[in-house]
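Hello,

Our lab assistant flagged a job as stuck in the queue for most of the afternoon. It eventually completed. Since we weren't sure the result was trustworthy after the delay, we are filing this so someone can double-check. Below is the sequence as submitted and the structure that was eventually returned. Let us know if re-running is recommended.
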Amino acid sequence: MKIKVLNDFKDIHSQQLYKADSTIEVSKERYDEMKQNLAKYDGEFLKEIKQRKARKKKEVASEEEGA
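-- returned structure --
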């Protein structure tokens, strides 16, 4: 899953510094763990980026024909 970094923080496992406004990809389990670890600090650090479902080309083409 993709997540947006809202505030700078340092990952406790990798020691990597994540900067605000960056986008990272992690598993759902890792995202939950990161949120839990960061909850003890003030502010929001992470936000899930919702993935839009891609429509099939056939559906898009049929909609364009009807327009």
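-- support follow-up --
The delay was a queue issue, not a problem with the job. The result is valid. The two ends are 35 Å apart (CA to CA). Residues 2-66 form one domain.
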